[in-house]
Write a structure and sequence with these properties.
With 239 residues, the protein is an alpha+beta fold. It has a single domain, classed as Beta Polymerase, domain 2, CATH 3.30.460.10. The chain has 7 helices and 7 strands; from the N terminus they run ααβααβαβββααββ. It has helices at residues 3-20, 24-64, 79-89, 95-101, 115-126, 177-190, 199-223; strands at residues 69-76, 106-112, 132-138, 151-160, 165-176, 226-228, 236-238. Strands 1-2-5-4-3 form a 5-stranded mixed sheet. α6 (177-190) packs antiparallel against α7 (199-223). The longest helix is centred in the first third of the chain and has 41 residues, at 24-64. The chain is flat.
């Protein structure tokens, strides 16, 4: 019997014993309560980060008369996804392992207008003294082979409870409207069940990603054009 199979069988026996014991309901309820509490902490972390982005968006609106952030979306990883990812990494499903080894339980996606906004907003966030950057992956400057583009940040942020402060991890994805549109459509096509995905299709998707990147570049160039508006007292305006 392989060590992996033996370990799985031991876990199964332990699970069966728990269900057969008189304390089964108590143990299950306790575990469910611990999981719910941990997810509540992640939701609090999401709220903290969302608030920071909304404040930055408001500040930029006041300073430059425009909002660099188009929309903000958030999500908590599903229980089945949490279990599968821990299993993939070889860790038992425990609250401690969730906190220590998973960085994307809490996720936020920030969609910006232009590529420069992505970097401006991310730099403004990371400059705040209560934000600790754990990891950054720049898939805008270094796209994935599929064509995927986005700036990924793993940060740690404090949440303040009644009697303690906890540091919670949050994954942040920052991308432009064009990048987000491509990623959403790519997901619909690539991950459709019972669908044959060929190399030709993958190449076509990558070509579409290049087109969306070109769109970003051209729109960015237009935004940087300096125009003189005679109706504004001769002042120079930057779009």
């Amino acid at each position: 019997m392989s060590p992996q199979f033996a370990n799985e069988r031991e876990l199964e026996k332990e699970f069966e014993e728990i269900f057969e014991s008189e304390e089964a309901h108590y143990l299950i309820a306790k575990r469910a309560h611990e999981y719910a509490k941990l997810m509540a902490y992640y939701r609090c972390a999401i709220m903290e980060v969302e608030t920071k982005f909304k404040v930055l968006n408001e500040e930029f609106s006041l300073r430059f008369d425009r909002n660099p952030i188009e929309n903000i979306k958030s999500r908590l990883k599903r229980p089945i996804s949490i279990r599968n990812k821990l299993k993939k990494y070889g860790y038992p499903l425990t609250m401690q392992n969730i906190e220590e080894h998973l960085h994307d339980v809490a996720g936020i996606r920030v969609v910006c207008s232009f590529p420069s906004d992505v970097y401006t907003i991310s730099e403004a966030l990371l400059s705040q003294d209560d934000i600790h950057l754990i990891q950054m992956k720049d898939y805008i400057k270094n796209p994935k082979p599929s064509g995927y583009r986005s700036l990924h940040l793993i940060i740690e942020i404090p949440i303040f409870l009644a009697k303690e402060k906890r540091m919670m991890k949050v994954e942040i994805q920052l991308r432009t409207i064009a990048m987000d549109c491509w990623a959403s459509l790519e997901h619909q096509i690539h991950y459709k069940k019972d669908y044959l995905f060929t190399e030709e299709m993958a190449k076509e998707l990558a070509d579409c990603a290049d087109l969306s990147a070109e769109l970003d570049e051209r729109m960015e160039a237009l935004r940087k054009i300096v125009r003189k508006n005679p109706e504004k007292d001769g002042r120079i305006q930057i779009i």
